[in-house]
Amino acid sequence: MEYLFVKYLHVVSSTLLFGTGLGSAFYLLATTLSRDVRAVAVVARMVVRADWLFTATTAVLQPLTGFWLVHRLQLPLSTPWLKASIVCYVLAIACWLPVVWLQMRLRDLAAEAAREGTALPPRYWQLFRWWVVLGVPAFFLFLALFWLMIAKPALGA
């Protein structure tokens, strides 16, 4: 029962991590492209909250439950699909960490523009481009992680 519970936590937390990231990215992207400054300010604020509430907690829970499951199953960390999963996760988190900072800056810039009744400033658009540049590889890395978790391929065997 303990194993199934931890595996359940691992699967649910991976779903929340990916789903919250994808949903937040969609809403911030769509709202930003609408150029409705007040809407961008509200959505950016909610995206930052969702990131701290769901993404940050599940980003911590994933390796904890994952390494517990690996230990419980006595899988060597050198198992090809597992090694690839760890690399993908580290790279995805390396993309996500600056995205958190970028989202907080985007939130602040949008809130200031909304208060002042002005358009989103050029700095917003510069940071937004970086947000997209980092978000795209993170998205594909998480897709690869789901495939690795499910397929557990031999990779080079």
Automatic annotation (TrEMBL):
Residue ranges of the TM segments: 6-29, 50-69, 81-102, 130-150
Highest taxon of the lineage: Bacteria
Entry keywords, A to Z: Membrane, Transmembrane, Transmembrane helix
InterPro entries listed in its UniProt record: DUF2269_transmembrane
Protein name as catalogued: Integral membrane protein
